[in-house]
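FORM 7B: Structural annotation worksheet

SECTION A. Query
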Amino acid sequence: MNHLSALDCVVFFIYFIIVSAYGYWVYQSKKKKQTDTKDYFLAEGSLTWWAIGASIIASNISAEHFIGMSGSGFAMGLAIASYEWMAAATLIIVAVFFLPIYLKNKIYTMPQFLSQRYNNTVSTLMAVFWLLVYVFVNLTSIFFLGAIAIETITGIPFNTCIILLAIFSAIITLGGMKVIGYTDVIQVLVLVIGGLVTCYMALKFVSEKLDTKTVFDALPLLKTEASDHFHMIFKKGDKFYNELPGIAVLVGGLWINNLNYWGCNQYIVQRALGADLKTGRSGLIFAAFLKLLIPVIVVIPGIAAFVLYQRGYFQAEMLDAAGTVKPDHAYPVLMNLLPSGVKGMAFAALTAAIVASLAGKLNSIATIFTLDIYKKFINTNASERRLVSVGRLSVVVASIIAIIVAPALRSFDQVYQFIQEYVGFISPGVFAIFLLGFFWKRTTSRAALTAALLTIPLSIFFKFLPILSNGWMEAMPFLNRMSWVFIIIIVLMVLVTITDPKSKNNKQGLEIDSSMFKVTPAFTVASVIICGILAALYTIFW
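SECTION B. Predicted structure
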């Protein structure tokens, strides 16, 4: 039934009170007499490694995972987990190579890096790109999927759900990064526990409906009933090859997507930028371990829903008004089958994921707009107090814009794939600019500007460029498209740079020495364990 029982409401209310009260306590106990921008946007020096790791995951995991990735699990199976498992490996690379460069050069925002390494033109252009993507793709999709899920579970109207989510997330965001960082620890705890409970109950439903002896028999049964849903690599000609094109998930475009997201993304890197190197690295490796767990929480329930649907259960619930199967309905449908109290815990986990991610993205939107747009071009002499006020106002404005745009996403079948594809329009250019900016001192501002201006036009060109496949003209898979755009942009940047005589004496390089990349034995052991787990997973589910 599409409602919460009295017990569910009590469980959710307890979660809401704990998060709100803890957030208020953090704000009161850690606030300074005069809040400045570094304190508000970065919580400089006050986040522990476990708070950083939890906050990174809380900012990353949202309705797009619980609803969108679970929907992709229903449609295509375990292969969608590559985004999570490959992210764990990516976080190791970011911790070893990217983070020390940011900290050594006192980088606090991604546009600031571009301004310091290149010039204000490149910085401003990319700041505008980021703001557009954060507001119109990331923020909008979280509001949409979150509201859809809550509407399906509780029966509360869609528009009301969006407004309530906006209010809850704004309250946390307005407290600054300290409040976000520490409340995210609770959010992740609730998210993981509630997610695991939902996964267990989904397997229990499969066990009961398909007459297996125990819940633990349900997992191999899923593999038997939906064998095509337990492959990590799609072959050419498979239905979902365009979404995850074969070996590209291991050696191609997915690396560009992940390295850009985890290493050049304000609302992810921001958590570690206010810490020292050891604390930041520990936070990132903790986040990597948590990423290994996410597919268990969100993908397995989606596959369970698919098996049950194939066996004739909840046929009507999985359809939209037009009678079309909507994979993104899978997780909310499963939640509606949970017993009273457990459903309240699962609903709290879903809400925690949505609100934490909204808060993280809103804080980053506020950071970029305030420090890289407002302070540079609108009010260069603004006081610290004024900048914090502008940051808070931008949180409200961004929320309103996303709320207005969110209903337009109803036309998409799998919103998770929509997010990945359209963020991928700028990912190749951004990653190329950062990569050469980090490790090739000669790279010029002109080369970076070339990349910034061409990344979207090239992505659009390849999106609509038909390729011959099995005698038919088909669209290029978007991960392959990202690879081609990245290669072309790298080549162009190198050519632009080496044809510029001034590049030989480029004074805008970064401070880098090999000692920055040394890691502790504990970090090395943790990295080996993560990579070993990944190798085992891909060997088993190839």
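SECTION C. Observations
Strands lie at 466-469, 472-475. The two ends are 38 Å apart (CA to CA).

SECTION D. Sign-off
Analyst initials: ____
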